[in-house]
Amino acid sequence: MLLHLRSVEGGAAFQTLITIAKIIPFTIVIGLGIFWFKAENFAAPTTTAIGATGSFMALLAGISATSWSYTGMASICYMTGEIKNPGKTMPRALIGSCLLVLVLYTLLALVISGLMPFDKLANSETPISDALTWIPALGSTAGIFVAITAMIVILGSLSSCVMYQPRLEYAMAKDNLFFKCFGHVHPKYNTPDVSIILQGALGIFFIFVSDLTSLLGYFTLVMCFKNTLTFGSIIWCRKRDDYKPLWRTPAFGLMTTLAIASSLILVASTFVWAPIPGLICAVIVIATGLPAYAFWAKRSRQLNALS
């Protein structure tokens, strides 16, 4: 947090470094795993094995429970105001990073599936660690390798959250849609210092007052609902004469409809697995957040009219 508080450039450099550090373990596993890949392990599992994994609703619940890990895809847009030539840079960054992650995770899944027999892989509580033990170069150190990789990935995720999320509160404050203090910029470091510090303090507070599963349910429901509203706002914005974005999504009608539908499905799926306390908190936040936004929006219009 201190790094991102002191320098935008320093935070960006660290994020680039930690991203490279995250990619290296993937390339090592994929590169080594190819030599120990066995086609018979990759054979299609039996119908019984597939049926044992659960129903279609269980699949949707699993997707919902892991959807938080994809929030960085859209959240990177919060940094648009601090990026040179965002009209070209942002589409390239979004599409390029999406393709890179898709390729890495697809290759990793293929390699893991080919290293270890399917029945053992399906029954393993630590499938990646167990699969990597089948690579002689890693062997008994596979667990340590995976643990170190996990720490690097978590560190990178936390760093990115500290970097981009405060920009949202900062922008809202600048638009008179949130508390004015969140729009404060450090006079020396030129960073949204108050927003960064308060968000970090809030994150620490939640860790101590709740358990991880409840927090995950709370975050997922709010995030999916927010995504639904965000995707829907595109339709409203397209009808405005003053809406002149730097990038227009091709076939936006179809893409927006699919995005809204998938987000609503994830909202419903969250109720399958998330703990009740977390869901209750999420519903309260949504129910109070909407009128709060209406209040701030009205206040913003009044301030703009006076100015």
What does this structure look like?
This protein is mostly helical. The protein has two domains: 1-208, Amino acid/polyamine transporter I; 210-307. 73% of the residues lie in helices and 0% in strands. The chain has helices at residues 2-6, 8-33, 47-51, 56-66, 72-75, 86-115, 118-123, 127-132, 142-174, 193-209, 212-238, 252-273, 276-306. Helix 9 (142-174) packs across helix 10 (193-209). The longest helix has 33 residues, at 142-174. It is globular and about 70 Å long. The relative contact order is 0.11.
Keywords:
AA/rel_permease1, 2 domains, 307 residues, mainly alpha, 13 helices, transmembrane, Amino acid/polyamine transporter I, globular
Could you provide a short overview of the structure?
The protein is mainly alpha-helical and 307 residues long.
